[in-house]
Amino acid sequence: MATSSEPATQSSRNAADRLAVKLRTAWQDLRSCTDGAAHAAALVQQANADLQNLQEMRAWYEETSRQLLMDPLERFLKLQPVKSALDALSMRDPEISPRALNARSRIDKKFQRVLIATALDLPELWRIFRAGSNVAESQSWQKRREAHNKEASALLDRYARWAQKAIGEEKKREEAPRDPRNDLWWRQHRALLETLLVEMAWRNLTLTWFSATETLIGDVHRESEEARSHRSATLRWLEEGARSDLAQDSFALITPEERLRGWALPIESEARLKMAERTELLVGGFRPRLRRIAMRSRFLRAFDVYARKRMRGLIEHSWQMTARVVRDAEQSKEMIAYWGETSLDRPAEASQLIEEARQNAMIALVEEPTLVPVEELNREAVEAFWRWHQAGSLMLEAEQDGWFAFLRRPRARSFLPTAIEMLGLQSRTALLGSAHWVRGRVERTMESVGGRVPTHPVLPPVIRRTTLRDTLALPAAKRELPPLYRLLFRLAPVEDRRFLVGRDQELAGIDQAVTDWEAGRFAACLLIGARGSGKTSLLNCAVRETIANHCLIRSEFNDRLLRPEQLDAFLRSLLGLRGDDDLLKALASERRILILEESERVFLRTVDGFAVVHHLMHLIHRTAATTLWLIVMNDRSFRVLDAATHLHRVFSHRINAMSVSRSDLETAILERHRLSGLRLEFAPPPAGDPRVNRAKRWFGIEDSPQKLFFDSLLQQSEGIFRSAFELWLSSIERVEGDTIHIRQPLDPSFNLFRSELAQEDHFTLLVIQEHGSLTQEELAEVLCESPDKSRGRTERLTALGLIELDPEHPGLRVKPEAQRFVNDLLRRANLT
Length: 832
Description:
This protein is α/β, with parallel strands linked by helices. It is 63% helix and 7% strand. The strands form 4 sheets. It has a 5-stranded parallel beta sheet with strand order 4-5-6-3-7. Helix 28 crosses helix 29 (787-799). It is flat, with a radius of gyration of 38 Å. The termini are far apart.
């Protein structure tokens, strides 16, 4: 027994001694990090108040943040003292007896608390310095550091005494139960690392802010100098007689929104890479606590409030000055061009008119232009940095540690103006939400009761029947537009993927259907969407991306099919079969994808008008193993067919390519417009009560002309691309130089126009929508009336501007700009 007990005693003594040594080493490593931070704090200095150069400000920030924050934290992450202590406990505890472990439990708890508290204090010196070096907080940090050193020294002495007592304790042979405190300590360690990494990410993101801002200032200054050169070249051209081709040149300014997006993009992109959406952080205090925070969204919100808004002012101020210089030059060239054309009708006065115009144009360009100098840009950028560096960091710190803990710190007093501003923003946001809620409730109530009852005006001398164009206040004809612009907004399906906006989920649905079919599972796809919603564009992009590697047959129904034999003949022609070939055998002989568009032309809403649909459903079931059917139709047709034949039961995937959101609609239009190189100018809304306007500005509910336009465009087009593009082109008031002026649309009132339509008109519009388009004979058959009576009604609806000849298929269709009115009309009549 004596010989067998000696190794156990030696092992216990070695394990306890090694643990004490490891813990002492871990504390010494951590203390070296805090000592380095304290030494750096004694050397760094606050920035000079006269510092107005952004590059010098960056150098100061990078150096001070490196000394106070990055060096201590990088050393901590390299040494990992807290992890070393936890590893030592995990490795040595199985070699120590349970009695000795129980005797050490209180020491472990206190030592871990000291380690965590000391590590959390590492970035605190940088936080204090960032907020202005509050003396009381610096002294408090030094006191905590001394207290931690003293307490850690006492605990390490207790570990040494415990290790001496642990000698001779017998090791328990069976495995000891898992201590739940270890899990908590490891969790705190992971949260501690995340907390330190967030501080480092914030510092690196600020350096990215410097890089983006330096690039922005360089680009803005370069554009200003180019505008000055353009103005000087125009003046020289005028002085030389205005006879060269320089007048055809133009100068395109980058819009403030594009500048702002380009500046913010690298910062926001890096934030999404370096900051998790939700992460668990460790908050300091007497008892460190865990907090789960959406750190990325908090950062982006602070960035939007304290960085983006200030930079927007800088960009817009510079842009306005540069735009004034360019506008003067463009107006001078426009004057010469106008008087040059006018003088052609007056040859006797031609030279005098042109000379006078040249002199007048030179007057506006002789005076030296006023542009924002680069020194002022640097000064404004430095002010924006201090706003972002101090207010933004304090707000993020409060969000991270909690407002109650943050407000107890002395530096929270410097945040008082920022807190008041933030509370004001929150109050405005709350009032804005309340105002929108009340407005929405009023609109829904008015809609449910049928709207306000119109007053009875005095009978006018002349009464003219209103039309849809009058109601929508559209111009009589589209304005003359540059050929390139008409090409960009042509009403044709798109082939370019970048023009397909807001259809990512629909493309993914088609890809899933193809994947299931390739795997041997049953798959048949139904694509539904309103007329002009972009179904064909969606298919074009799907064919180029998803279906490119498969055998594909794509066609559409041009004529209406009412008998199964007609459908078989149509499919035989697609497959290149003779009239006596077996259709089912041919479909089963080869794997292919079959796309059939305009499928609303395979039925007629009559008693025996659904035979072709039933036959098509039968073919899909019989041939789905080798043929992936992709059937395309509009939403109204699907409702009728589903009610009559339960069409949805046939398909494994149904893609609803319906209306898009306002942001997608705006992106689709502005992306096309951007490629034209022209500028946009939206007309302001009509002037109202100044007191109401001031109240709206205070509450933050005063919308920009651009937002008002696209809100109205979304309502009038109901999110349908084709309707939106036609309304966009119709809303162009004029084209002046390189600027397109868009008139401000108003939400039309359909009350008067609605009274022009009778119940028979409602049913006529309904069945035309359900079939996509109908000829006069088909319409008469569906409505069970004579062709003459049907023709008279459709001619009247055409005169009202509600229907027109379908340019692509036989029959009449509902006009794209009338879709909103017709849908609202049928909904009010309980027909949809």
